[in-house]
Specification:
With 55 residues, the chain is mainly α. The chain has one domain (2-54). It has helices spanning 2-9, 13-26, 30-54. The N and C termini lie far apart (26 Å).
């Protein structure tokens, strides 16, 4: 999912995943909220790794 978000939303991918996490959290779906939080963390980790390789 992280790759799909990065492909569609570029630098906004982590923010999009966070949005879905909050959306599901507010509706009481902790499982989906947790899953989207995990996606956001994966996207951010991938961004850090790319930045480190570029420098």
């Amino acid at each position: 999912m992280a790759q799909v978000l990065e492909g569609r939303h570029g630098r906004w991918a982590a923010d999009v995943a966070e949005f879905f996490s909050v959306f599901h959290s507010q509706r009481g779906d902790a499982g989906r909220s947790w899953a989207w939080t995990s996606v956001a963390e994966t996207v951010r980790r991938r961004e850090r790794n790319r930045a480190q390789r570029a420098s």
